[in-house]
Amino acid sequence: MEMADYRLSREALRDVKSIMDYTAREFGRTQADRYRAELHAAALTIVAFPRLGRPYRTSTGEFYRRHDCGRHGLFYSETDGGIVIVRILHLMMNLDDHLR
């Protein structure tokens, strides 16, 4: 059985860059690399178990699943082509504001 794939939306790619820049600046490059690996492992877990994430519906009715990794939530959708991670957001943010 072939495992599905995942991809990051344009916004999620920007989120990763922002997270890595902040983590490297505040905690060092080694910690940033470690956290990137943790985020990638979380994405692979989502691919293996797509229903693992908790359902999350925005105030405008959009539906995603959310899987937490550290202080961030990976918000994703299941598609025929695999998992699309639409955003990776710090859990202290107003999530709905960033999921429009």
From TrEMBL:
Keywords from the named record: Toxin-antitoxin system
Keyword Transferase applies: no
Pfam families: ParE_toxin
Residue spans crossing the bilayer: none
Keyword Chloroplast on entry: no
PANTHER family associated with the record: TOXIN PARE1, TOXIN PARE1-RELATED
Family statement: Belongs to the RelE toxin family.
Name recorded for this polypeptide: Toxin
Organism of origin: marine sediment metagenome
